[in-house]
Amino acid sequence: MNLTECIASRRSIRRFEEREIKASTIRRLIHSAIQAPSACNMQAWKFIVVNKRGNMNKLVNFGAAKWIANAPCGILVVYRNDVTINTVLYKDNFQSAAAAIQNMLLEATNLGLAACWICDLPRPKYVRKIFAIPREFDVIAYIALGYPKHDNSKLSLKHYGDEKKYNAHERKYSFEQVVCYDKFYSTNNDCTSMQIPKRKVVKRFWLKRKCFRNILFTDHMLKE
Ligand SMILES: Cc1cc2nc3c(=O)[nH]c(=O)nc-3n(C[C@H](O)[C@H](O)[C@H](O)COP(=O)(O)O)c2cc1C
């Protein structure tokens, strides 16, 4: 499969066969992940390979997406949060980790695996506890992995079943809907006209504390 085909055929798959994934295949996925660019070439990522069903069940019991427990394997991606000044301004630890994740998903597609990028996870403090993740690492995402239960090619325009609620719009926006020249402007039916469902405002101490810390750092940097 060439790169363009691989990009076009990648799908988020949430139903898996029970078949195990070989350790050598996981190694190949992570090898592709770590070829990704990273801010300042810090490569401050760690990949926690999750094979124990007990840990998957813990995640789900704490509120994570239920299909985590259907996949025979998962990879939890974490990235250091103290490595560059832009970590605060542009969250470049998340950006670097996301680049690695996308490489991994493309490699998974290339190898005929099913994968789903999952941020529907319990609060970070619970994820940290389950996997003994130190404070200086942010929990980025969990990648559920396995062999697909269905033929992926059938997931063409819209997804089906559980996937439906994640895809209220047509599968992908067009070039005209996503591109603007020289300044920001809206185009017909682009994401600026998207109806965002109202969310409950949940006051979370950990979130407030993190924002406060970010403001402090930003002020400090502006003075320099
Ligand atoms: C940052 C991020 C977080 C996501 N979190 C979840 C998630 O928690 N649960 C899930 O089922 N899919 C999740 N997805 C997958 C998206 O739902 C999926 O990419 C989207 O519906 C488009 O479908 P496609 O990947 O097949 O193109 C996530 C994707 C990204 C990039």
What does this structure look like?
It is built from eight helices and four strands, in the order ααβαβααβαβαα. The chain has a single domain, classed as 3-Layer(aba) Sandwich (NADH Oxidase). Helix content is 36%, strand content 13%. The longest helix is centred in the middle third of the chain and has 19 residues, at 92-110. By secondary structure, the protein is α+β, with helices and mostly antiparallel strands. A four-stranded antiparallel β-sheet has the order 1-2-4-3, sandwiched between helices.
Ligands, ions, cofactors: flavin mononucleotide
The strand line-up of the biggest sheet is: 1-2-4-3
Mean pLDDT, all residues: 84
By helix and strand content, what is the structural category?
A: alpha+beta
CATH class, please?
Alpha Beta
Number of domains: 1
The largest pleated sheet is described as: 4 strands, antiparallel
Outline the secondary-structure elements.
Layout (H helix, E strand, L loop, with lengths): L2 H7 L13 H11 L11 E6 L2 H9 L11 E8 L5 H4 L2 H19 L3 E5 L5 H8 L5 E10 L28 H4 L26 H19 L1
Antiparallel strand pairs: 1-2, 2-4, 3-4
